[in-house]
Design brief:
Largest sheet of chain A: none
Strand content of chain A: under 5%
CATH class of chain B: Alpha Beta
Strand order of the largest sheet of chain B: 1-7-6-2-5-3-4
Oligomer: heterodimer
Number of strands of chain B: 7
Radius of gyration of chain B: 16 Å
Largest interface: A-B, 14 and 14 residues
Shape of chain B: globular
Shape of chain A: globular
Helix content of chain B: 25-40%
CATH superfamily of chain B: Glycerol-3-phosphate (1)-acyltransferase
Chain lengths: 315, 200
């Protein structure tokens, strides 16, 4: 998978770095100006988040620079870490050990090999069909019937969310869009940028204006102002980036709206699982953000929808 | 060098979240006593200690397990500097408590698993009496309860290949032998000290 590094890519990357520089400046200014105890904690968290963003942007940028292979590896590793966090939170039994080993070391790498090999036909059915049938067979050999359906369902769900859904993001690189050959790196960049900026903007609007909670039982931090402001501003951002995509401005707006709404839904669903298990974050790998799963929950839900919308209408 | 690799590998596989809840992470002389569910317990607990404490902390391990083959004796002797004890035929000459006391006399800290073997589930088995004897003879040494959580899911008893989940290691508040406390009461209290870390 060869990706061209063109003028538009430079603009995209430059824009993100510029945005990070400004955010870092604002963060430092807020930390220096504010002496209120309660606000200090929030500002500290904000600055930790911004620092983590630098690292994430750097890693993602380097992966894109290497062309397809680096991106597939990066998303593969992300899936692996997310699956690790997810299964840790999910009570399985010792008799699931061998099935879990398959999930981590055979099925996950295989899914990403299929992405790299651009084998679409098998890529879309490996986990929903073959893993779906194989995992319970591997489990039943252990002869433990206790909560069997529940345990099997949990492993399958973990694979779907953490591996199958996420793998649709690097799979964007393999789409053959007429007139856009060799430029799919920008499409992946566009997708990740809109999803993540939607999260960031929801957070910002929520902190600035948020009062009424949108789903108090599920996620205490999500407010109506955050939701509406975040979705609209992220959609506008996506629309403004239409020149880097194969879409017209109106199409880019529609795509961005779909991505941000799915991302919001993903954030809520993954929060519900955390609440049910009585934890705040999936892990502690990314300082300020929590675990890998906390950062990619919106990608999980948005990636397959964006992938198929693009594939259906533009290839 | 190999010790550092072992530490890095242990941390990578276990993804351990280390929590010092009841005592600071320093190098004072201690007996760390922990629950035991996985072959990884020793190395993961050992890797969780700060480097200066690690250098003088010796895991107490079963001789029947760690003298088999080539790799295990090498690890036990060269990397962990383990105190290898007899589990089955304890005699006056071959007494685990004497060996542990000898190691403590050299200012070493110890890691012990008082259940006397790996358990298949997360429930703690009754403790062997070694911990009591150490508490009685060396009242000056801190006895630190340690809960190792989730390693039994990463590498359960009887499995060869690990699954890379995240685990946690919690260090609790040191306990000591109270005056007139019976052996059974002390051992049960020590067991409860580990069990309680589950709730925090």
């Amino acid at each position: 998978m060869k990706l061209k590094l063109d003028q538009q890519t430079v603009w995209l990357v430059g824009g993100v770095i510029g945005f990070l520089v400004i955010s870092t400046g604002i963060g430092m200014w807020m930390a220096a100006r504010n002496s209120n105890e309660a606000d200090q904690a929030a500002i500290k968290n904000l600055n930790a988040r911004i620092r983590a963003w630098w690292v994430m942007v750097l890693v993602f940028g380097l992966a894109l620079l290497t062309g397809g292979t680096g991106s597939v590896l990066l998303f593969g590793l992300t899936s692996f870490l997310a699956l690790r966090e997810f299964i840790t939170l999910t009570p399985t039994k010792l008799s699931d050990h061998r099935s879990l080993f398959w999930a981590f070391f055979i099925i996950t790498p295989l899914q990403y090999c299929l992405v790299a090999a651009r084998w679409y036909g098998l890529f879309v059915v490996l986990i929903p069909v073959y893993a779906f049938l194989f995992i319970p067979i591997r489990s039943v050999i252990e002869g433990d019937c206790d909560r069997f359906l529940e345990r099997t369902a949990k492993i399958q769900w973990a694979l779907m969310i953490c591996v199958y859904c996420v793998s649709h993001a690097p799979a964007l690189l393999s789409l053959e869009i007429p007139g856009y050959e060799g430029q799919n790196g920008k499409l992946l960049f566009f997708f990740v940028l809109v999803v993540q900026m939607s999260d960031v903007l929801q957070y910002v609007w929520g902190k600035l204006l948020g009062k009424r909670r949108i789903a108090p039982q599920v996620s205490p931090n999500k407010t109506w102002a955050g939701f509406i402001g975040g979705i609209i501003s992220a959609t506008l951002l996506g629309t403004a980036l239409w020149w880097a995509t194969p879409f017209s401005p109106w199409q880019a707006a529609g795509m961005s709206l779909a991505i941000t709404l799915m991302g919001f839904g993903g954030g809520l669903v993954m929060s519900a699982i955390k609440r049910d298990r009585g934890v705040k974050d999936y892990g502690n790998l990314i300082v300020g953000h929590g675990g890998v799963m906390d950062r990619i929950d919106s990608i999980c839900f948005a990636a397959p929808v964006f992938f198929h919308l693009t594939r259906f209408f533009f290839t | 060098m190999i010790a550092n690799v072992a530490v890095a590998l242990a941390r990578l596989i276990s993804g351990a979240n280390v929590r010092w809840l009841g005592c600071p992470p320093d190098a004072r002389q201690r007996v760390y006593f922990a629950n035991h569910t996985s072959n990884l317990d020793t190395v993961v607990l050992w890797a969780a200690l700060p480097p200066e404490a690690r250098a003088q902390t010796r895991p107490v391990a079963a001789r029947d397990y760690w003298t088999i083959g080539k790799l295990r004796p090498y690890l036990a002797k060269r990397i962990f500097n383990a105190v290898l004890i007899e589990r089955k035929k304890v005699t006056a000459h071959d007494n685990p408590v004497e060996q542990m006391l000898a190691a403590l006399a050299e200012n070493c800290s110890l890691i012990i698993f008082p259940e006397g073997g790996r358990q298949s589930g997360p429930a703690l088995a009754p403790f062997k009496s070694g911990l009591y004897h150490l508490a009685r003879k060396r009242a000056d040494v801190e006895l630190v309860p340690v809960l190792i959580d989730n390693l039994n899911r990463i590498l359960p008893k009887g499995e060869l290949l690990p699954v890379p989940l995240l685990s946690s290691i919690s260090f609790g508040t040191p306990i000591r032998l109270e005056e007139n406390e019976t052996r059974a009461a002390f051992l049960e209290r020590a067991r409860q000290a580990i069990e309680r870390l589950r709730q925090t």
